[in-house]
Amino acid sequence: MNLVEALEIFKQALPEGAQPLRTFLACGFTPLHLQTFLAAHLRKRLPKQRVEVKTGLFGDLAGNLERLQPSECDILAVVIEWQDFDPRLGIRSLGGWQTTDLPDIVKSASLVAARLEQALRRTSAFVPACVSLPTLPLPPLFTTPARQAGDYELQLRQLVASFAASISRDASIRILNTQRLDELSPAPARLDVQSDLMAGFPYKLPHASAIAELLAALVENPTPRKGLITDLDNTLWSGILGEVGTEGISWHLDQHSHMHGLYQQFLGSLASAGVLIAVASKNDAALVAQAFEREDLILSEESVYPFEVHWSRKSESVQRILKAWNIGAEAVVFIDDSAMEVAEVKAAFPEMECIVFPTNDYQGVWDLLKRMRDLFGKSVTSEEDSIRLKSIRGAGVLRESLDATGGSLDDFLQSADASIRFTFGKQAADNRAFELINKTNQFNLNGKRLTDAAWKTYLNDPATFVMAASYEDKFGPLGKIAVLLGRIQGKSVRIDSWVMSCRAFSRRIEYQSLKQLFEKFDAEEIGFDYQATPRNGPLQEFFAELLGSPLTAGMRLSRAAFSEKSPSLFHRVEEAVNG
Amino acid sequence: MDEMETRLARCFSSVFPELTTEQIRSATMDSVPAWDSLAAVTLVAVLQEEFGLQINLMDLPELVSFDAVQNYVRKHKAVS
Mind listing the pLDDT tens digit for each residue in A66-103? Predict the structure, then answer.
């Protein structure tokens, strides 16, 4: 994006009722075009929001952070340069570059790093922050030739790396990845010496745009994809299994098929982070089972569920996999080496990301892995991520058991040995609760999403409560699967948000949740901020059955009506107060 | 308007979106309240992008009107 394009974006009309996104850009230099680019990239990524970018005082990065108040902004963008650690590390200062100054520069940089960390940790309690670390070259103040990294230079780089690693552990702070910035903005084309000295703005325009683009992406923090469906032949491995047999397929260096090994390794990594992996392959099921018994296979069979291996159309396999996972096509990526198969699946599921596996194209596979990191990467992984596959397998067992027993849900649930732990607490660091609110579609009271800042504001409101439910039965734990946000009004409870993971359906957790609310708050009635959405059908069905009347915004449920309609509940219930 | 003038007007329109085409052609620092030092630096950056020029910020005091900017760009574009 160039500057004219950035300025032109502001001429576009905003949709009616656009919500404000108040962004505070904290930097030590004159923000000038960075402010313009940041606003433009944010506007481009978040077209339904009215983007405002405010800035602080010139030359006082730490002070700007320390003065920031919770009511001032919804998101914080912090752009740090070397001169913020010590003015002598910039070119506008003439504070001395003598060899005797170097230890003092490192020492003062260390003190500033500690101050910045403290300020960022304070602000992260009320507003999420996206941080860019120094991107400009260090000035030539070191005694070694430019080709040689010297002691003090390395100490400074180590200091910044330690600072970044430390703040990155705060879930509300996201660090801009310099490796990605290097791809977008070559190091020699970043510093604008004239602009720095004349206007206090150190960046060349393309570099300012690149930083702003990545910061805007960090602010948007798009929901990652949840599942990946992969083909086998010439995709997960090299070779056609039906032609070369289980010993003929390969994924190793000595067979020049190492890129398939890397692909497997990457899928294993995704699976370990909670991404669902399934196989859709036109193949002989018995042969595939044998292939997955090979001990040198890098992606284990346990990481994959389900396997759709037969000779039917790929779109049919994909349909069944989506049903087993109980997620929408837009949350899934399909990968196959056949352009025809990819086109067939894409035609059936237009909202699905469908990618042709670039067999025999080393760079292509490398680029694919990088693209997938962007599609599946998430800011924070949770305990629930690690048990997701297990719980989906458990749900499959549950469905099969119900089918086998002729559908006696009461008998089945009674024997499930289920327990629910309700936690009442308001922890800003509870990313799982925040994630559930923002990605759950089917059992969702109103489809309302919360920004990081709105979430923190809600938690800080003394009139509100947060109830989370974690579930476990003999098929394994589901982890934290439901979140309810509400407020008490005398003998009434008002529910602002209620979401439950689709993995937890058919266990009557929703009934137990309402029962818990009636009992916990000794409530006579619960009101719901209900709104129909194109995708909250399961929630609508639940309420239609419970209320026996048409659903309306602000609908209410009395304790007596609930007691009358609630089915038998077999869970063991625990309650905890947390935070 | 020749091609350069049209491109120049587009640059002005980006920086001063509230001005009409006619107002742009007669724009001066005195007649446009939004033309402050920040806008001047932004205008220079936009001109550099649009015309591939390296404009010395020391020349900013010269660039006080649409006509002055046009003359400056024609002169330096011819040189570069």
Answer: 999 888 899 999 999 999 999 999 999 898 889 899 99
Please tell me if residue B56 touches chain A, with a CB cutoff of 8 Å: yes
The average pLDDT across B3-25 equals 91
Q: Ramachandran region of residue A575, left (φ > 0), alpha (ψ -120 to 50) or beta?
A: beta
Taking a C-beta distance cutoff of 8 angstroms, is the pair A471, A419 a contact? yes
Distant-in-sequence contacts of B10-16, Cβ < 8 A, 24+ apart? B10/A4, B10/B50, B11/A4, B11/B43, B11/B46, B11/B47, B11/B50, B12/B43, B12/B66, B12/B69, B14/A3, B14/A4, B14/A7, B14/A8, B14/B46, B15/A7, B15/B39, B15/B42, B15/B43, B15/B46
Question: Model ipTM?
Answer: 0.76
The CA distance from B76 to A227, in Å, is 56
Contact A7 B45 (CB under 8 A): no
- In chain B, residues 1-40 whose CB comes closer than 8 Å to chain A: 10-11, 14-15, 17, 38
The residue assigned the tokens 């699905």 is A352
Place of tokens 């660090």: A175
pTM, whole model, 2 decimals?
0.76
Which residue carries 């107060």 as its tokens?
A577
Q: Where are the beta strands (DSSP E) in A276-402?
A: 276-282, 304-310, 332-336, 353-356
Q: Which of A37, A454, A435, A417 is nearest to A210 (CA)?
A: A37
What length does chain B have?
Answer: 80
Closest Cβ–Cβ partner in A10, A33, A198 for B42: A33
Type and span of the H or E element at A472? strand A464-473
Residue in A8, A194, A198 nearest the CB of B14: A8
Q: Which parts of chain A sit beneath pLDDT 50?
A: none
Which pLDDT score, from 0 to 100, does residue A502 have?
79
Contact present, A252 and A261 (Cβ < 8 Å): yes
Neighbours of A553 (CB within 10 A): 10
Residue A353 has what DSSP assignment?
E
Q: Is B22 exposed, middle or buried (0-12, 13-18, 19+ CB in 10 A)?
A: exposed
**pLDDT recorded at residue A399:** 67
Measured between beta carbons, the chain A residues lying within 8 angstroms of B50 are 4
A194/B contact by beta carbon, under 8 A: yes
Do the chains contact at B41 and A7, CB–CB below 8 Å? no
Task: Enumerate the β-bridge partners of residue A500.
Answer: A443, A482
Which residues are bridge partners to A377 per DSSP?
Answer: none
Check whether the bond before A306 is cis (ω within 30° of 0): yes
